[in-house]
Amino acid sequence: MPTPTMNAIRLHDFGGPEVLRHERVPIPEPAPGEVLVRVHAAGLNPPDWYVRDGMPGIPAEFRPPFDLPLIPGTDISGVVEATGADVHDVAPGDEVIGMLRFPVLMQSGGYAEYVTAPASDLAPKPASVDHVHAAGLPMSGLTAWQYLIEVGHDHPSPFQEAAHRPVRLGSDTTAVVNGAAGGVGHLALQLAKAKGAHVIAVASGAHETFLRELGADEFIDYTRQRPEDAVRGADLVLDAVGGPTSRRFLRTLKRGGALFPVYFGEFDDEENAELGVTVTGTQVRANGTQLAELSRLVDAGALRVAVDSTYPLADARAAHERAARGHIQGKIVLTVA
């Protein structure tokens, strides 16, 4: 009997968007504790292009093993097709979302018509939105949640020994969100605002109306004004861009403040101590319970997932080319017919 097959995007070599191939491959089977999900949409995230490139900028000791060919993609929204043994909380026909196996595996198979997933990584899909918007929630939403609200795990960041502890957010808190229009940024802005914080959004001017609609109290167009010159006395900076330039935000903080770079850069512990600030990060991890809470916030109207653009699965290369151009407003999503 022929093996059932599906459409999927695979990598046979590392490189640019051109290495993404649209192919027919066998449909996977769920192992015990797993479910088979019929994918309706898959959200794109930076780890997708890090994996596609072979993660050249990551030190070898932090680089997970990759078995080629692989199907990239961690974020999905779809319908449960079948369940493996020892699965009791979801059933065929359930609409679900998930960030699958991250960061244990970065080749989780989301760019496909079907994917297997640990049942514990899944949460009910928000009923109030379609699969496209739901697929934009998992990794970006969990990153914002684990940085700002509750880490939910005790795994250390691969880039530092210090444990990450979110800052209490309230009406007496000023929070700066850099890269506020992107996937993590636009959700972090809303979570901080929901907690009552005064939120300063940093992005290019084209995103000002969008971010003010999401609740930003102040807006800084970084193309016209350097945020490190404009802000003083902040309690928290969530730098959703992170990396080598993140250190510039230290001067925006008051003593006792905290800088959370999502992509960790180089910092001086002595300088941080002299300024009286902390700099910590965490590595987002799959968590179905936290994702379910984010799903409830979407259904309650407290959290909005914005979609920058959509592409059919077969056009994954074009989706990655869009990501490479930057200035993304919300999420890029693949649709699966």
Lay out the secondary structure.
Elements: E1 5-11, E2 20-26, E3 34-43, H1 46-53, E4 75-83, E5 95-99, E6 114-118, E7 122-124, H2 131-135, H3 138-148, E8 174-178, H4 183-194, E9 198-203, H5 208-213, E10 218-221, H6 227-230, E11 234-239, E12 253-261, H7 269-275, E13 278-279, H8 288-299, E14 307-312, H9 316-325, E15 331-335
Parallel strand pairs: 8-9, 8-11, 9-10, 11-12, 12-13, 14-15
Antiparallel strand pairs: 1-2, 3-4, 3-6, 3-15, 4-5, 5-7
Q: Could you walk me through the main structural features you see in this protein, from its secondary elements to its overall organization?
A:
This protein is an alpha/beta fold. It contains 9 helices and 15 strands. The chain folds into 2 domains: 5-139 and 286-335, Quinone Oxidoreductase, Chain A, domain 1; 156-279, NAD(P)-binding Rossmann-like Domain (Rossmann fold, 3-Layer(aba) Sandwich). The chain has helices spanning 46-53, 131-135, 138-148, 183-194, 208-213, 227-230, 269-275, 288-299, 316-325; strands at residues 5-11, 20-26, 34-43, 75-83, 95-99, 114-118, 122-124, 174-178, 198-203, 218-221, 234-239, 253-261, 278-279, 307-312, 331-335. The strands form 3 sheets. Strands 3, 4, 5, 6, 7, 14 and 15 form a 7-stranded mixed beta sheet that branches. A 6-stranded parallel beta sheet has the order 10-9-8-11-12-13, sandwiched between helices. A two-stranded antiparallel sheet has the order 1-2. Helix 3 (138-148) crosses helix 4 (183-194). It is globular, with a radius of gyration of 20 Å.
